[in-house]
Amino acid sequence: MTQPTASIRNTWRLTAICSAMHLLVDGLCVCSLYLLSEAIVDRQLLAMFIAYNVLAFLTQPLTGALADHAKRRHWLLLASVLLLTLAVLATVAVLRYGLVAEGSMLVAAMLGMGNSLFHVWGGKQVAVTTRNDIRALGMFVSTGVLGLSLGYVFFSWNLLCLFLLAISVLAVAYLHGEATVCSGDNSQRSTLNSQLLTIMALLLLMGVVMLRSYAGQGFSLGADVGADPVPARLVLLAATVSMLGKMSGGWIARRWGIVTSFALMVVVAALCFYIVKGWHVDFPYTGMGLAVLLVGAFAVNCTMPVTLYLANAVLPGREGLAFGLLAAALIPGYLLATL
What we know:
The protein is mainly alpha-helical.
């Protein structure tokens, strides 16, 4: 059944709001953590970031399952905004009263759980309201990386307050517009008739996400902000390219088909990865070296909406769990690349 034009426009408007909130939520979390990092010793800093990442990513299968079973999913968004607000207030209190050693882990916990709840809520909402439209999925997942970079490069109290205010305003705007979107079960039907095939397909997709996370680190320009040889402008450039890759991946797959598009993305990413690894350790961040890194980052990120689309198709009606499983699969790949 075809949706009315007005309903389609409103659906895309809500997707845009979710995408903007994704940027803001990730930016707020990083901004808060880096404000705390200025007053923390190395060991505490490592523990804080580990706690945040464990709660933000590895809890998403659990919060995703919660999103799937929640009859009123807006409570997840409200809980997320509440946790993020408390985390910002706690950041202020911790630094003002010199309670960094005791309070940094509490802030990391609230940020991590607020982040986890938001991501599965947003992933579920976009998948359901757009009927698993791969273009909308790419749009939603794309903005987080830019938010991380903005919070990383420009972290300040003014930016932290701006992020929180914008999140609150957009949350209200989303809840106001949500009532005009057609409700009901908009999930696709699974093409897999066997539970074993479903599990195998999910494990395969999670494996692809792990490999993508590992390969993505090979194209990373990660370094201390402002440090030579990676200036902040290149960190922002790499984040923008990664965002455009995730956003473009859905449109490319919609135009050329999933199999053809995915194969092309993998070939380009593998070729760039081979070039990067085949050059010297001091791979240049200028000229052709930078171009190879950016093309590789674009290609590898193009695959993200494809894997999410397929996971939603494998688990119809459990889009929150599908999103959470793929998010959790990012961590092993990242650890392998880091270690």
